[in-house]
Design a protein that fits this description.
The protein is 50% helix and 8% strand. It contains 12 helices and 5 strands. With 263 residues, it is an alpha/beta fold.
Amino acid sequence: MKKKIECVIMDWAGTAVDFGCFAPVEAFVKAFGEKNIRLSVEEVRRPMGKAKIEHIRTLLQTDAVRAQFLSIYRREWKADDLIGLNESFEYHLFLRLDRYAAPIAGAVEAVKALRGQGIKIGSTTGYTRAMMDIVEPVAGRLGYKTDSCVTPDGLPAGRPAPFMIFRNMINLDVRHPGCVLKVGDTLEDIREGLNAGVRTAGVILGSSELGLSEEDVRQMPEEELGRKMQAVRNRMTDAGAHYVIDSIGKLPQLIEHINLTDL
């Protein structure tokens, strides 16, 4: 028998804050641009959800970026290049991070509703602790807080490894993975949840997978937006998501559905 949800573990950027997950995208493009390597936004978003240095490593390993690097520098990239790109990425991210920490519409209300049911709120992220030391206070002043925030620092690996979820379960005294729902906006979030043996839910609006700003969503013809949202739903389902919701505001309804029908 499945257990009722006692704990929801949320992602941050693209799920709870930073509609469209633009802060890291802009910083990645800037960092690689300083090395004269051109990246499309689509290329940047593909590994989204990983710890940021692993995100950079993944980009460097793609055929397109490797070819550019070889053409410019006449050699393969090495560890010093990875470290330098990460330092540049962090510099550009820290310049803008506080401007991309506002809660996504519906997130504050969703968490309040879940807490009203006694559900604990954990969180995982691809950001480092130093990054979250900027994001958390800004989001908190605007009404969004979690009971536990775990970053990849000091753990064997970030996403898609399950260690951040396990640390949340320890921090919050949650004793069975069947009581946990992992919620996120990327395929890495879903893989993280699956690797931890918990149920997973993808969120479409505001997600890095959708990659649209709030203004984009408002202005896009309904039929076109619907096609884009369905494509994200399909990718999340194909990645193994147990559930996919249109927006974070639908989370309390999903929890109610799970607890009433999935036992």
